[in-house]
Amino acid sequence: MTTETTTPARTTRRARRSRLAVLAALVGVAAIALGACSPEEDRAVELVNADRSRAGLQTLPVNIDLYFKAQSWSGRLAGAQGLSHSNLAEGIGYPWMRLGENVGYGYSIEQVHNAFMNSPGHRANILDGSFNRIGVGVTRDGAGRYWVVQEFMQERL
User: 5 pLDDT exceeds 90?
Assistant: First the structure.
């Protein structure tokens, strides 16, 4: 009897959580589709995809989890006024095979992107053909510097 009375309640809670998770994902996708990304974040994605296209690679669509993770981390970096990498897997709710991250700062999005492309490790992330999703976060600090975080994912399809 105990099982019969608790199972429907658990099922109801589980169903409610599932509906909330789907709703949150839809709101996030809608936010990106409606331009919730800043012009600086859009520009950073454009620069990555332009270099990937020139290299004969597929362009990367924005992934909502990666976007929110990157945005949050860029804010932390700007607040701390220092560079560090995040826990790559933290906050990623999609099935993934590989993750990568670039972090940097500068006085323009182009300056940061050029620094990434002139660094072998950062360039390798940008031009890694196995990555199929991206999220970019940009925070501008009081001194006018842009703190840029690029999150890359090879999603398990």
Answer: no
Phi-psi label, residue 26: left if phi above 0, alpha if psi -120 to 50, beta otherwise = alpha
Tokens for 66, please give them.
């990666």
Pairing between β-strand 146-155 and β-strand 96-106 as defined by DSSP bridges: antiparallel
Reported as a single tens digit per residue, the pLDDT across 12-49 is 555 555 554 444 454 444 444 434 589 999 999 999 99
Rounded to 10 deg, the angle between the 64-80 and 2-33 helix axes is 70
What separation, in Å, do the N-terminal and C-terminal C-alpha atoms of the chain show? 42
Residue 8: its pLDDT value, please? 46
Tokens matching residue 50: 């332009």
DSSP class of residue 47 equals H
Dist CA 10 CA 39 (whole Å): 44
Q: Is residue 73 left, alpha or beta, with left meaning phi > 0 and alpha meaning psi from -120 to 50?
A: alpha
Question: Are 104 and 112 spatial neighbours (Cβ–Cβ below 8 Å)?
Answer: yes
- Rounded to whole angstroms, the Cα distance separating 101 from 125 reads 7
Whole-angstrom Cα distance, residue 73 to residue 86?
A: 7
